[in-house]
């Protein structure tokens, strides 16, 4: 009787998350996405030949050989004539949904009523791992890698020779999607060892070594690989990787490390139960447990490798890895319900469901300003690239170094961007029609000195923070707010994200407003050329309606120093 309402709630949570991520996505490349443009531009010049194509396809970038994402981009280019980064994000969202379906398949083996599954989508579908759901290449790498891994687990569970071949192919594809994909092989080996299937485990090991050999051919180590500074940092990173689903609250590193240790200890307990097959005729674990344990084994092995080679920069609490933390939490809940009757009590289920709904809502509260800010940044850069051939979403050196393929790709149409939210003539006319504001916008300028950890030490960065906490009036959640800057001497106009701060939790609950009044814009030291810039704020509503606010001050830029006048 409750199956339909439970299914409706689950599907609704999934659909809302897909809509949320699609709404905030933009067909614009960001940082590592340039890799796809460079690859397509290189191999379509007609001079590389088949050998050169394969060499470029398997070229190492940032420690990874992103063969599968490159092939996807190349295939799309051949079909449509251009690259669509919003389409890649749609593929990512489909992958995430498929990974969720894998979890559901294992839950179904428990034969529990569907309403026990209701907490799972709330624990999984939210913007905790927004760098995956909103970043084309990064999202494709992590989501395809995980999708290939869960498919390999499903095929391995069929225990046939044909299915084994399919599982090994999935592991191979995972390896050449993201460097961590090679770790899908040990996960499948773990699965076979749980059933004392030494023959298939041996075959998987051999194929893993062959795949590793292919991967290491021409491999170039990146700047991010370095051993940790201490054992404490290593273990903190290791467990925080698994438990960072709870990093939304205070003391995120400590809380995540403790939570990750609890999850790992519970999974180790189930592993001991599964290893009983080596000491008695029948295993004591229930259906679906080994599949979930295998996925967790992949996550734990991955966390170990990342903690070993990346924790020198700090703990591994990073949005691009937190899809694994979300999966760990989901599997932890399902297995608790499966093995401990107390968690199947209706009162306990009611409490857990309530907490999972609160957790999901809090994640949206915490990260929606970041997600919406990225959309505004990319929309601003659509304008900046079309009219100025520059971007503010990445550091100027990245654009400068990539111009040798970005410019020709844009000129010939393989880098095809959407129309900007406003044209230069339109913004020019808005500046001309608007007199200098008589009202006090209470604009202030702050300097930020930021330290960024690099392999050889620390890099010191200088940021400027231009903001007002008073005006313009608050914008709606679905709107975009931009800082518009017009160079008084050259007439060039630039756009930057200027979304305001989010309201406090109590105010959001009582008023329903997510954003505060005012605006916020971050400017790097070398973003702007020397000059005097007229300032304005532009609000663009979801329907395209605009509101233009000419500010009462101008911005002076001289050799990286900024002043208001």
TrEMBL record:
<keyword id="KW-0472">Membrane</keyword>
<feature type="transmembrane region" description="Helical">
    <location>
        <begin position="85"/>
        <end position="105"/>
    </location>
</feature>
<feature type="transmembrane region" description="Helical">
    <location>
        <begin position="229"/>
        <end position="247"/>
    </location>
</feature>
<feature type="transmembrane region" description="Helical">
    <location>
        <begin position="112"/>
        <end position="129"/>
    </location>
</feature>
<feature type="transmembrane region" description="Helical">
    <location>
        <begin position="135"/>
        <end position="156"/>
    </location>
</feature>
<feature type="transmembrane region" description="Helical">
    <location>
        <begin position="292"/>
        <end position="309"/>
    </location>
</feature>
<keyword id="KW-1133">Transmembrane helix</keyword>
<feature type="transmembrane region" description="Helical">
    <location>
        <begin position="253"/>
        <end position="272"/>
    </location>
</feature>
<protein>
    <recommendedName>
        <fullName>Glycosyltransferase RgtA/B/C/D-like domain-containing protein</fullName>
    </recommendedName>
</protein>
<feature type="transmembrane region" description="Helical">
    <location>
        <begin position="347"/>
        <end position="367"/>
    </location>
</feature>
<feature type="transmembrane region" description="Helical">
    <location>
        <begin position="321"/>
        <end position="340"/>
    </location>
</feature>
<feature type="transmembrane region" description="Helical">
    <location>
        <begin position="7"/>
        <end position="24"/>
    </location>
</feature>
<feature type="transmembrane region" description="Helical">
    <location>
        <begin position="198"/>
        <end position="217"/>
    </location>
</feature>
<keyword id="KW-0812">Transmembrane</keyword>
<feature type="transmembrane region" description="Helical">
    <location>
        <begin position="163"/>
        <end position="192"/>
    </location>
</feature>
């Amino acid at each position: 009787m409750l199956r339909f309402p439970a299914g409706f709630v689950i599907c609704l949570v999934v659909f809302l998350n897909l809509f949320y991520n699609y709404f905030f996505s933009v067909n614009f490349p960001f940082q590592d996405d340039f890799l796809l443009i460079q690859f397509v531009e290189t191999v379509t010049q007609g001079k590389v030949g088949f050998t050169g194509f394969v060499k470029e396809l398997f070229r190492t970038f940032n420690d990874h050989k992103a063969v599968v994402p490159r092939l996807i981009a190349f295939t799309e280019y051949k079909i449509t004539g251009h690259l669509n980064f919003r389409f890649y994000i749609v593929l990512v969202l489909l992958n995430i949904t498929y990974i969720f379906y894998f979890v559901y398949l294992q839950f179904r083996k428990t034969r529990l009523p569907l309403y026990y599954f209701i907490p799972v989508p709330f624990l999984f579908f939210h913007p905790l791992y927004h760098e995956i759901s909103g970043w084309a290449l990064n999202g494709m790498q992590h989501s395809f890698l995980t999708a290939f891994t869960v498919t390999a687990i499903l095929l391995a569970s069929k225990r046939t020779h044909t299915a084994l071949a399919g599982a090994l192919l999935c592991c191979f594809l995972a390896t050449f999607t993201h460097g961590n994909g090679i770790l899908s092989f040990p996960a499948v080996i773990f699965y076979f060892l749980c059933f004392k299937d030494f023959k298939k485990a041996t075959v998987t090991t051999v194929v893993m070594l062959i795949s590793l050999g292919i991967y290491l051919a021409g491999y170039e180590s990146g700047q991010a690989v370095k051993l940790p500074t201490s054992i404490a940092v290593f273990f903190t990173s290791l467990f925080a990787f698994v438990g960072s689903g709870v990093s939304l609250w205070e003391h995120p590193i400590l809380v995540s490390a403790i939570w990750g240790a609890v999850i790992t200890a519970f999974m180790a307990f189930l592993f001991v139960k599964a290893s009983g097959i080596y000491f008695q005729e029948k295993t004591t674990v229930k259906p679906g447990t080994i599949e979930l344990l295998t996925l967790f084994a992949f996550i734990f092995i991955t966390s170990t490798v990342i903690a070993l080679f990346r924790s020198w920069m700090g703990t591994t609490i990073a949005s691009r890895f937190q899809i694994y933390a979300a999966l760990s939490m989901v599997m932890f809940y399902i297995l608790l319900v499966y093995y401990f009757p107390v968690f199947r009590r209706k009162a306990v289920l009611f409490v857990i469901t309530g907490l999972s709904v609160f957790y999901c809502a809090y994640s949206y509260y915490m990260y929606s300003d970041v997600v919406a800010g990225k959309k505004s940044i990319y929309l601003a850069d659509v304008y900046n690239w079309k009219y100025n051939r520059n971007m503010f979403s990445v550091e100027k050196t990245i654009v400068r170094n990539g111009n040798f393929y970005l410019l020709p790709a844009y000129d010939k149409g393989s880098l095809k961007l959407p129309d900007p939210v406003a044209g230069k003539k339109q913004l020019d006319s808005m500046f001309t029609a608007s007199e200098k504001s008589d009202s006090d916008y209470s604009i202030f300028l702050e300097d930020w000195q930021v330290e960024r950890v690099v392999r050889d030490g620390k890099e010191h960065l200088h940021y400027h923070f231009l903001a007002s906490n008073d005006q313009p009036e608050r914008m709606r959640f679905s709107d975009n707010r931009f800082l518009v800057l017009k160079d008084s001497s050259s007439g060039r106009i630039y756009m930057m994200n200027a979304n305001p701060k989010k309201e406090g939790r109590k105010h959001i609950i009582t008023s329903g407003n997510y954003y505060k009044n005012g605006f916020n814009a971050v400017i790097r030291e070398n973003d702007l050329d020397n000059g005097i810039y007229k300032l304005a704020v532009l609000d663009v509503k979801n329907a395209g309606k605009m509101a233009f606010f000419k500010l009462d001050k101008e911005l002076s830029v001289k050799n990286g120093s900024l002043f208001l006048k």
